Amino acid sequence: MRDFSRDHRWLSINTATVRRSRGVDLPLPQIIEACARRGIRAISPWRDQVAAAGLDTVSKLVQAHGLELSGYCRGGMFPAADAQALAAARDDNRRAVDEACELGAACLVLVVGGLPGALAGRAVHKDIAGARAQVRDGIAELLEYARPRRVPLAIEPLHPMYAADRACVNTLEQALDLCEELDPVRDPAARAALGVAVDVYHVWWDPKLQAQIGRAGGRRLLAFHVCDWLTPTTDLLNDRGMMGDGVIDIPRIRGWMEAQGFAGYSEVEIFSTGNWWRRGHDEVLDTCIARHRSAV
Fold first, then answer.
1. Structure confidence at residue 186 (pLDDT)
2. Residues 6+ apart with CB under 8 A from 242
């Protein structure tokens, strides 16, 4: 394993982590400047933050500071109740690929979606198998658009508690089944066009995790997201913990990743309405650096 204790060369900040500072929205250019001042070499921005600042503005800032993008959040949300909504999802995902290409992102992260309407509180049906079929078809179509643009797609399996509303792909095994079906290995030395984003918050509990990371191999391990699972958890979406404050053995999982050849960034992604988003962003970023050295 790489030694993270001496520096934060391999730390990336998912910009959701400092989306709010002392309860106030923090513009993406300010986040970028704060990361650059600390020698943080990579970020993973969210599309709404990029849209608010302007794609061209963000692209120029990233280049000016010599930053890399460990990923781009996010595409997906494929299932829909009718043809018009399916077409809208297709078009939005293509725009996401174009944005990721412009920003030079290492991958476009896919949160695939669940039952249509469930995220708004009113699912239009209960056919999760049908939703998964739409996910499969949506990824297959998007892959053909992303491949010539050299934007790898990273399926992020989400914890089963999100199966209805955010992602009906809930284990690394499911995600890799899709990868192998839609992007079969032709050149084992080449990076996959379709792979996975391993977020410890979502997969730490899975008894098959080590085996599935081994199955993925280095070519399909496109992103590694870190935070911690608190006990008790007061909000299943917005009470993620800082690394070291919860029950996830993050170094063990990183060790499994690196044993397969993963040599990318550890991307801190924390949603925390009750704690970290109430603090100043300087404190949050400084804590991320410290915990990256001691708990990742």
1. 78
2. 227, 228, 270, 276, 287, 288, 291
